[in-house]
């Protein structure tokens, strides 16, 4: 079999289908440790540096299992092709390399149907490389987006395939872990860009301010989108309740944990807001289906690989957080789980606020890597490492 290229969406499908293969990442160990391919099910993953293949070819080749399908990943494609050619010379028969490099995995969006009603469709767009989710709500020939990433072509192509136009685009907060797409989508399509003054007032974004409790609708009726201010992760954190059945919670409610309030450098002040928002969440209809902005790992997905869970189950699963009954104890919990945020986050905030411009290559670099937005699990992980 001749060498071939494959695309990120094919890799995801193979991982989902549990195809027998070995993924060989040939980046250096630092870049690999920061961000690498992860899938919904276990698979074989090796990190053997491109430089090892250059300088110690025999030893590097010996680390790669024979008689297996090999799928190579590198930063920009060229190194993966080089390694693939080496493996082919050594008699490997089924060797492919990722077209476009790891950034194509980082930008991949996988659409999943959350609900199909008589007059609307709700989709979750999973971004495996960022462990994040954006959303699309379609009614008639119109579409609303929630927390879109910078992969504009995906959303516009998806809308076109559904025969609709983007009407509105909403942000749940000023993102720190990835470059948001609402501003650019609004410029490309004429859609209205909605955001919360609590985060965006000092930005240079051409947005329309949200109002707590306001209802957003489509031109011809359909489901309502109710705005619910839930500050804490950031001062302007906002959730959106769709058709009184679903809550797009951004970084407020996670399936495992809640959003961390220390990313802005004001942990105690924001923790107080988050504690108050938690009290609001506990009073919501417990039948609401929570649709989070991020996930920690694939174990949170349901059998259809959708990240969604009823609010009552979320509250039960996270009762060690939602059961904290006083502010002082909650602040202690937050302090116990604080950790340094990635250096890139400060720059990403400025880019998302339209206060700093970066070249495309730098934007790609900033946008790679998993999120670190959950408030818990850190202390537990540290204890496990020390055990």
Task: For the record, give the distance between the C-alpha atoms at the N and C termini, rounded to a whole number.
Answer: 47 Å
Poorly predicted residue ranges? 378-387
- Percent helix among the residues? 25-40%
- The strands making up the biggest β-sheet line up spatially as 6-7-8-9-10-11-12
Would you tell me which CATH topology of the largest domain applies?
Metallo-beta-lactamase, Chain A
The first-level CATH class of the largest domain is given as Alpha Beta
Instruction: Please give the count of helices.
Output: 16
Supply Rg. Answer: 22 Å
Count of extended strands: 18
State mean pLDDT (0 to 100 scale): 93
The outline comes out as globular
CATH architecture annotation name of the largest domain: 4-Layer Sandwich
CATH-defined superfamily of the largest domain: Ribonuclease Z/Hydroxyacylglutathione hydrolase-like
Number of domains: 2
- What characterizes the major β-sheet? 7 strands, mixed
Q: Give the class from helix and strand content and strand pairing.
A: alpha/beta
Q: Strand share of the residues?
A: 15-25%
Write up this protein.
This protein has 387 residues and is an alpha/beta fold. It folds into two domains: 4-104, Oxidized Rhodanese, domain 1 (3-Layer(aba) Sandwich); 109-336, Ribonuclease Z/Hydroxyacylglutathione hydrolase-like (Metallo-beta-lactamase, Chain A). The protein contains 16 helices and 18 strands. It has helices at residues 8-16, 29-34, 50-55, 57-62, 78-89, 102-107, 152-161, 182-189, 197-200, 267-282, 311-317, 319-322, 327-336, 344-352, 360-367, 378-386; strands at residues 4-6, 22-25, 44-47, 70-73, 95-98, 110-116, 121-127, 132-139, 142-146, 165-170, 192-195, 208-209, 215-218, 221-229, 238-242, 246-250, 289-292, 309-310. The strands form three sheets. The protein has a seven-stranded mixed β-sheet. Strand 14 and strand 15 form a beta hairpin. Helix 10 crosses helix 13. The chain is globular. The termini are far apart.
């Amino acid at each position: 079999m001749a060498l071939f290229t494959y695309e990120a969406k094919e890799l995801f499908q193979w991982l989902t289908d549990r195809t027998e293969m070995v993924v060989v990442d040939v980046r250096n160990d630092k870049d690999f440790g920061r961000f690498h391919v992860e899938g919904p099910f276990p698979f074989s993953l090796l990190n053997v540096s491109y430089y090892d293949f250059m300088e110690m070819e025999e030893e590097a080749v010996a680390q790669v299992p024979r008689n297996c399908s090999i799928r190579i990943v590198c930063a920009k494609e060229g190194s993966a092709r080089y390694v693939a050619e080496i493996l082919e010379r050594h008699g490997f028969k089924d060797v492919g390399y990722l077209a476009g490099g790891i950034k194509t995995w980082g930008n991949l969006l996988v659409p999943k149907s959350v609900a199909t009603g008589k007059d609307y469709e709700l989709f979750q767009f999973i971004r495996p490389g960022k462990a994040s989710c954006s959303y699309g709500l379609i009614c008639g020939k119109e579409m609303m987006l929630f927390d879109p990433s910078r992969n504009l072509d995906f959303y516009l192509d998806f809308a076109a395939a559904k025969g609709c136009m983007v009407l509105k685009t909403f942000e749940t907060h000023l993102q720190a872990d990835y470059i948001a797409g609402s501003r650019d989508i609004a410029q490309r399509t004429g859609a209205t860009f909605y955001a919360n003054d609590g985060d965006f007032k000092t930005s240079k974004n051409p947005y329309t301010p949200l109002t707590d409790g306001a209802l957003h609708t489509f031109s011809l009726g359909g489901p309502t989108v109710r705005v619910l201010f839930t500050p804490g992760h950031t001062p302007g954190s906002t959730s959106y309740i769709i058709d009184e059945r679903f809550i797009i919670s951004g970084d407020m409610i996670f399936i495992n944990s809640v959003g961390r309030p220390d990313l802005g450098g004001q942990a105690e002040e924001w923790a107080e807001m988050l504690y108050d928002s938690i009290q609001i969440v506990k009073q919501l209809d417990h039948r609401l289906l929570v649709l989070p902005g991020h996930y920690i790992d694939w174990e949170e997905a349901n059998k259809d690989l959708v990240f969604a869970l009823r609010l009552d189950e979320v509250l039960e699963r996270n009762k060690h957080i939602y059961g904290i009954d006083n502010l002082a104890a909650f602040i202690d919990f937050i302090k116990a789980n604080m950790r340094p945020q990635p250096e890139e986050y400060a720059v990403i905030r400025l880019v998302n606020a339209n206060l700093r411009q970066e070249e495309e290559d730098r934007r790609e670099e900033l946008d790679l890597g998993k999120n670190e937005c959950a408030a818990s699990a850190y202390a537990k992980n540290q204890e496990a490492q020390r055990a």
